[in-house]
Amino acid sequence: MLTVSSVNVNGLRAAAKKGFVEWLAATGADVICMQETRAEPDQLTAAVREPEGWHTVLAPSSAKGRAGVAIYSRTEPEAVRIGFGSAEFDESGRYAEIDLPGLVLGSLYLPSGDVGTPRQDEKERFMKEFRQYLDELRERAAADGREVLVCGDWNIAHQEIDLKNWKANRKEAGFLPEERAWLTGLYESGYTDVVRHLHPEGPGPYSWWSYRGKAFDNDSGWRIDLHVATPGLVERATSAVVERAETYDQRWSDHAPVTVTYDV
């Protein structure tokens, strides 16, 4: 069995002080994909940077204090790659990838965007480049006898059942028609949303709740933290759970880990 967790930590240094270290010590995951680490390796304690029993890949952004992704694996990776061959985005802390036996596994932090601003333009450029990469990756991995799994904060809710207040967000970044169509195209190309495959009905399960108001208490969330995989791995997915904190004050991020177990 292979258990993979993905979580946007909303600042790894802050999360480490609020419960991440304890969660890491208790998790049964074999691989953890993290996003929005917002830290250089030398800014992390040894217990976070190189925890015992884990092989760690840290990919900070060249823009200090922004973005950043990481992958922690109990099995030593056969290969490590940072970025996806993009002149604009390879140093932005948006993507890291490892090879494990029979599997290519990536950690993704897709830009969040903001309608009517350069941030949305950046998101669209990223999506265009990354989609091309995903197509190439699927073919390359298949030729190498590997499945593909890309986990992370995709910053797009695909369907109305993927966010609580969908009507109010139809013109907002993360639920724009063109963003949702981009995901549809990806899923029609040979990738599958693993959690939705296992939980087809909805609503949710949500993985992000704003710190504002009573969003967490009312479960007014978004499902934007995804496991996206090629068909051979999807069929081996046996369970998926969002590790939602029991109470608001027990949260160590505004996201919750999305954990999937695969029978490999």
Automatic annotation (TrEMBL):
Residues 6-255 form the Endonuclease/exonuclease/phosphatase domain. This is Exodeoxyribonuclease III. Belongs to the DNA repair enzymes AP/ExoA family. One of its GO terms (molecular function) is double-stranded DNA 3'-5' DNA exonuclease activity. The gene is xth. Probably binds two magnesium or manganese ions per subunit. It comes from Saccharopolyspora hirsuta. It is an enzyme of class 3 (hydrolase). The record marks D225 as: Important for catalytic activity. GO terms for biological process: DNA repair. The record marks N155 as: Transition state stabilizer. Coiled coil: none annotated. The record marks H255 as: Interaction with DNA substrate. Its cofactor is Mg(2+); Mn(2+).
